[in-house]
Automatic annotation (TrEMBL), chains A, B:
Signal peptide: none annotated. GO terms for molecular function: metal ion binding; peptidase activity. PANTHER family: BETA-ALA-HIS DIPEPTIDASE (PTHR43270), SUCCINYL-DIAMINOPIMELATE DESUCCINYLASE (PTHR43270:SF12). This is Acetylornithine deacetylase/Succinyl-diaminopimelate desuccinylase. Coiled coil: none annotated. NCBIfam families: PRK07907.1 (NF005914), PRK08201.1 (NF006053), PRK09104.1 (NF006579). GO terms for biological process: proteolysis. It comes from the Bacteria. Residues 196-353 form the Peptidase M20 dimerisation domain. It holds the Pfam family Peptidase_M20. InterPro entries: Cyt/Met_Dipeptidase (IPR051458), Peptidase_M20 (IPR002933), Peptidase_M20_dimer (IPR011650).
Length: 458, 458
């Protein structure tokens, strides 16, 4: 029985299992649902045992548990793949906006509705179906690669114990490639692979001037105004081409290859539609790059918040004592968050006018960007696997946002490959989350082929 | 009996009357004290009648009453002088910081402590003593000029009905010169006259971008950020010399004369002491002007408040939907607030980037600056009068702030002359307000000579 036939034959069984799991409201951000998160971990462990994994463990953390499983390849020389996903889900408020109850999974047409259907239970579960399909197709009783699963329970509440867990269990997690199934592809008819995510570091900048608010009649125009200095500082963050003017900011940037830019240009991007999604009437960004390149390939400096002085009703004619701003920087491969923090600090301190004092508070060590090597064998294998499943060329995308994935690559020292079938229209983190069931089956088919490709048995 | 002898002889009687008036807690900003403000008006009316004014009237307003009095000169061709002051006082909080109860007037050394002692009951009352002294010295039973008093009851709560009252009573207020006794002089040993106050107009600027806050991972660096645009806009408000860059802003400025700048330079200004008062560690302002000139003679643009995006704890990686700033402009003679508003609007609108929308809300029509003509006979007469009283040269100062005085000049079409003896150290609007009684007596002496000087009888 070939992979596709097996998957079609087990469609109902697969969906039935998924619905069972989706019925567990494993909301990690809500302490009232922490028992449900633990129940979700046990459900998954049982399911993995039933799938045939010889090793299945629930890994406790100071917070909520992750699930680990391992199925060694018959050939001890075969590569090891680690699959990352999560079994906790987002909260459901405003619950009155759901068309069907969030924890009563409901099929409507090709869609399966329910919290976690796309993010991430559906995408975790297609791995078990894909693995069974690969075994059925090969007739073997062990996969062509050693398959490890690590499915965390705190992803939707900040992955606060995840890096620590990975470090503590580092020896059990050894692998040659990490497969991430927690993202989206371009469109249902345009399968794609994410090949990078931006990093992040953020800072709160405060400028302090007079020891108290001053009457602007008595002192205005004769002492430095912290809000004015903040405006000058933030205005100087970018040059006329909307490039970031912090000295050295771009020094370590690894530019995307011409091949990747060419592949991005092939995506059927509709700028008008994108602007409608952005609820903005104009696109604007670094000169010389397209909108997609600005979001995916280029670092940014964004003012997230700013405040100081009188912000209530009416006028108050003061020179305020302080000004504050929150600025976040999206980073790209090559940029070290801590090095960027040093450069931002130097930029600010070089620009503090006489009479003012600057304080910078960085929001932790930041997150590095990650990107796949487009020429790596693992990435090529995954692309071939998805193209076999979908029967159409697979393009590359990136994510403009930042996640714990870079930590995974760092801790494990393994390349990341994103195999995921979510869609932007899946309403993840919103009411009426759903997943397209045909895409889940394509996901299962893709990973079945991927194990073959990586095991060299295709 | 000469003026000074009369005043010395009536010192105790004068202070006794003032203490009686200061005991009335006429706090206009506190509705619980509005009856006291009315009582204060009646007390003043009775006192003016006792002084000898043939006409004394309490003028009701939709709010709190003003007191008007008139004493015609014997010579119907003599000039008419209108004295402006106010009989309401500031609130007293924090009352626990007063060394003596605010409405139990207490003499300590040369100081008389109590709310309103300097601002403004003491400075209103020296006019009655001065007028009696002038009559005693001349032996006449009418003053050498027609003296009118207008003492409002809402100055400390915004003078909300004052302009309307003046317009309604315009015919009764006709005068050749208006004397303002509600300000300060440079120092007890450096008598001075205020010869100008700055005007004011203020605006709240809002910039609107995306219809909602956007995720900076998905949209940052590719749509215009309203906070960034606000920083650019406010940074562009001044040029490198800290001159205001709004086109046409300085077009109508009437520059202060070389004589006035020279007189300001003669004031014993201690910049280090001033910075200590400002609680600032540096002075900064328009290139080419001293600190006093920046505050008194030059228009300014001051950012009073600014806000937008995430201003709470922690990070929130958004492109905010809007940015807001409050900006106030101090104006100098020649500048029309409404014309400045037009120019500020044009400046902002010319700089709104694509994809953003600006809204400007001006805080009313603004206030014009006022300044005395240093060569006017009235000003020269007042300076001579003060020099006779103090026995030392009288210098000129200005006020950096703005008040209703420009309205008085506008409505009455009369030049303003500031004769006042308050000190910066009088703690007006603060706990432990006081006045120096020797200066109040010098104030009385000054106006006695002023009526002579203006009446041509000196």
């Amino acid at each position: 029985m070939d992979v596709r036939t097996y998957i079609e034959a087990h469609r109902e069984e697969f969906l039935s299992s998924l619905k069972e799991w989706l019925a567990i409201p494993s909301i990690s951000a809500d302490p009232g649902h922490h028992d449900d998160v633990r129940r979700s971990a046990r459900w998954l462990a049982d399911h993995l045992t039933a799938t045939g994994f010889p090793t299945v463990e629930v890994w406790e953390t100071p917070g909520l548990p992750a699930v680990f499983a391992e199925w060694p390849a018959a050939d001890p020389g075969a590569p090891t793949v680690l699959v990352y996903g999560h079994h906790d889900v987002q909260p459901v408020d405003p619950v009155e906006e759901w068309d069907t109850p969030p924890f009563t999974p409901t099929e409507r047409g090709t869609s399966l509705h329910g919290r976690g259907a796309s993010d991430d239970k559906g995408q975790v579960l297609f791995h078990t179906l894909g693995l069974r399909a690969a075994l059925a197709a090969s007739g073997a009783d062990a996969p062509p690669v050693t398959v490890k699963l690590l499915v965390e329970g705190e992803e939707e509440s900040g992955s606060v114990h995840f890096a620590e867990l990975m470090k503590a269990r580092r020896d059990r997690l050894d692998c040659d490639v990490a497969v991430i199934s927690d993202t989206t592809m371009w469109a249902a008819d345009t399968p794609s692979m994410c090949v990078g995510m931006r990093g992040l570091t953020d800072v709160e900048i405060s400028l302090y001037g007079p020891a108290r608010d001053l009457h602007s009649g008595s002192f205005g125009g004769a002492v430095p105004n912290p809000l004015k200095a903040m405006a000058d500082l933030l205005s100087a963050l970018h040059d006329r081409d909307d490039r970031i003017a912090v000295p050295g900011f771009y020094d370590d940037v690894v530019e995307a290859s011409a091949e990747e830019r060419e592949l991005i240009a092939r995506l059927p991007f509709d700028e008008a539609e994108w602007l409608a999604t952005a609820a903005s009437t104009a696109a604007r960004g670094e000169r010389g790059y397209s909108t997609l390149e600005r979001i995916w390939l280029r670092p940014t400096a964004e003012i997230n918040g700013m405040w100081g002085g009188h912000t209530g009703a009416g006028g108050k004619t003061i020179v305020p004592r302080s000004a504050h701003a929150k600025v976040s920087f999206r980073l790209v491969p090559g940029q070290e968050p801590l090095k960027i923090q040093d450069r931002v600090r130097a930029f600010v301190e070089a620009r503090v006018p006489d009479g003012l004092r600057a304080e910078l508070e960085f929001g932790g060590p930041g997150v590095r960007a990650c990107a796949s090597d487009l020429s790596s064998p693992a990435l090529k294998a995954a692309r071939r696997a998805m193209e076999r499943a979908f029967g159409t060329p697979v393009l590359f995308t990136r994510e403009g946002g930042s996640g714990p994935e870079a930590d995974i690559a760092d801790v494990l020292g393994a390349p990341l490959v994103f195999v995921a079938v979510g869609l932007d229209g899946d309403n993840i983190h919103a009411p009426n989350e759903k997943v397209e069931t045909p895409l889940l089956l394509k996901g299962a088919e893709s990973v079945a082929y991927l194990w073959e490709e990586l095991g060299g048995t295709a």
